[in-house]
C-alpha cells in the first residue's frame, strides 16, 4: 500500500488537528501513514528563532488562536493552548519513539495531543505522561528510564535531522513516496490525493 | 447583500490565487466582495522584515514555489514568479485606487496579477501598466499622473493603515462584516461560508 510520511511536533497545535483526522482520511484514500515525530526547535533555530513564530509575531499568534477555535468547532474538537506554549515536548517525543511500530507512536501521540490541546495539560510533566502510559498498558517507570537512554536520544536526533534534510520547515508536514512535501493541516487532503493517485493534478514531474 | 473584504497586495502570489477565483465563489455564496489593495511592505516592517519571508527563509521560499505550481495546475492557471520577487507594486496599487468602485479595482488588479504571475512581467514598469490601462479604456497619461497625486498616495496609506489596524499581517486576508479575520487563499471558502451564514460553524461569539 502507498505510504505517506506524517511529520509533526507534539507541541504543534496544527499537528494536533492533523493527528486527530489523518487515520480516517488515510483509510479512505487507501494510504498508510508513517508517524514521524520530530522536534521543531532545531528547525526554528536554523531560521533564527528561539521560540514559536506565534510568540515572536503577536498578530500571527492572535490569529492562530482564533483560527484554531474556528476549525476545532467545525470538527467537533476541544481546543485550548497549554501554558506555557509551546510546551516542552522533548520527553514526550522520546517516549513516542519507544517502539518503532507506527501503532505505538500513533496511539501514544494521539493521547498526548488530547491531554495537551483538548485538556490543556502540561506534557513536560512526567506524571501526565505516566497516566497516558498506564492507559496504554506500558510499564511506566521502565518507559521513562528508556526514554532517557542514549539510543532513544539518538533516534530522535536522527528523526529531526532527517526532517530538515527533507526540507521540512514547519509542522505538520507530509512527504509522499516520490518526495513531494506538503506543509500544514490544510494541505493534508492534497498530500493524500497526490500519494494515492486519486489526484486531479497532472503535474507529476519536478520543475 | 452580505459583504466580505478582500485584502491583498499586488505583489503577493497567494493573493493572485484568490483574485482569480473569488468572484465566482462569492457569486455562489451570494456575497459581495470589497477589493482592498494595500501594501505588505509596512506590515512586514512591523514584523522586522525588509522583504518577503519567502526571501528571508529559503526553505519556505522553495516550498512556496512548488505549492504554487501544484495549485496552479490543479486550477488551470499559469504560474511563474516575476523577477525580482516580490515586485515593486507601489505604482500599480495606486492605480488600483484610481476609482473608488470595486469594479474598477477588480478589473485592473486581475489584469495586473495575470501580467505578473501568469506572464512573468514586471509590474513596476509603467509601460506594462499602460498596456493594461489601454485595454481597460483608460486615458493612460492622465491615469499615471493621477496615480502620483497626493490624494491617491494618501488613500493608499490609509488603506494600509486600516489593514494593520484590523489585524492583517499577511495577504490575502478576508474580513467579514462581524470582524472575523481569515488569512490565506486556503481560508477563502471558510471566510465566505462565515459571511454568508451557510457556515457549518456554531462558533459565532468571540472568545
UniProtKB/TrEMBL annotation, chains A, B:
Pfam families: DSBA. Residues 4-190 form the DSBA-like thioredoxin domain. Keywords: Isomerase. CDD domains: DsbA_HCCA_Iso (cd03022). GO terms for biological process: glutathione metabolic process; naphthalene catabolic process. The keyword Isomerase applies. InterPro entries: DSBA-like_thioredoxin_dom, GST_Kappa/NadH, HCCAis_GSTk, NahD-like, Thioredoxin-like_sf. The active site is at residue 12. It catalyses: 2-hydroxychromene-2-carboxylate = (3E)-4-(2-hydroxyphenyl)-2-oxobut-3-enoate. Its EC number is 5.99.1.4. One of its GO terms (molecular function) is 2-hydroxychromene-2-carboxylate isomerase activity. It comes from the Bacteria. Belongs to the GST superfamily. NadH family. This is 2-hydroxychromene-2-carboxylate isomerase.
